[in-house]
Design brief:
Elements lengths: L4 E5 L6 H14 L7 E5 L2 H11 L4 E5 L16 H6 L4 E4 L2 H6 L4 H13 L3 E6 L3 H5 L3 H12 L11 E5 L13 H19 L1 H6 L2 E4 L7 H5 L6 E4 L6 H8 L5
Parallel strand pairs: 1-2, 1-8, 2-3, 3-4, 4-5, 5-6, 6-7, 7-8
Helix pairs in contact: 1-2, 5-7, 7-8
The chain binds 2-phosphoglycolic acid.
2-phosphoglycolic acid (PGA) binds next to strand 8.
């Protein structure tokens, strides 16, 4: 059975003291949760502090991005090795905001995934179509390209260190969540792509998270879908009460 993952992407939000207050509350309110992996992704400047605060709890820390090198003359960048040193266990890679606002392409994302693995960290690899791509009938082609290019040359063993997040761009931050059926359709398609590229075992084990306007009032339906293995949550992860309810989704 695939253990669900609920991950909070804090994006560019929260000062150090706000981040600490949030993780303290989550630590307290989620201490008894054992059947869900809980992840939060603060801004770079809060990572080490939040990781220290979460140490010994069931909350894991992720970074929101990385640069695909270990060290070197790369002013302003942060490597997976340093993120691990700061207490991260995973890195969100290829988020649609990185693709759209910062020009990240499939090849760069692929290099980032490999560098993340070399540091011994897990990649939370984001994919998803825009509204124009969906309405133009190109959704499946886009997902296929993102998966095959993003995971090119990743070996079967390293796939244990990959979580996929399907995040339709039109659902991110818009309040327009994908329907349960739309999410299931995309997730089943993506799992099949993984099967074609890496075989049955990897496909059966890989966790595929849904992201895009996940809220306390829609998480239960999404999580009831057979191929939805968790959620990547933006806006609703900034409020302890909402995130706690999402982690404690109703298992039906
Ligand atoms: P949202 O963001 O939950 O605010 O839509 C999701 C994401 O960008 O990961």
């Amino acid at each position: 059975m695939r253990k669900p993952i609920i991950a909070g992407n804090w994006k560019l939000h929260k000062t150090l003291s706000e981040a600490l207050a949030l993780v303290d509350k989550l630590k307290n309110d989620l201490a008894s949760v054992k059947d869900v992996e809980i992840v939060v992704a603060p801004v770079f400047t809060a990572l080490a502090t939040v990781a220290r605060a979460a140490n010994g709890s069931n909350i894991e820390i992720a970074a929101q991005n990385c640069y695909p090198a270990v060290t070197g003359a790369f002013t302003g960048e942060v490597s997976p090795t340093l993120l691990k040193d700061a207490g991260c266990r995973s890195i969100i890679i290829g988020h649609s905001e990185r693709r759209q606002l910062f020009g990240e392409n499939d090849a760069l994302i692929n290099t980032k995934i490999k560098t993340t693995h070399e540091a011994g960290l897990r990649a939370i690899f984001c994919i998803g179509e825009t509204l124009a791509e969906r309405e133009g009938g190109r959704m499946f082609d886009v997902l296929k390209r993102q998966v095959s290019e993003g995971l090119k040359g990743v070996d079967t063993q390293s796939m244990q260190q990959v979580v996929i997040a399907y995040e339709p761009v039109w659902a991110i931050g818009t309040g327009k969540v994908a329907s349960n059926k739309q999410a299931q359709e995309a997730h089943a398609f993506v799992r099949n792509l993984v099967r074609e590229q890496f075989g049955d075992e990897v496909a059966a084990e890989i966790r595929i998270l849904y992201g895009g306007s996940v809220k306390p009032d829609n998480v239960d339906g999404l999580m009831a879908m057979p191929d939805v293995d968790g959620a990547l949550v933006g806006g609703a992860s900034l409020k302890a009460e909402d995130f706690v309810r999402i982690v404690r989704f109703n298992k039906g």
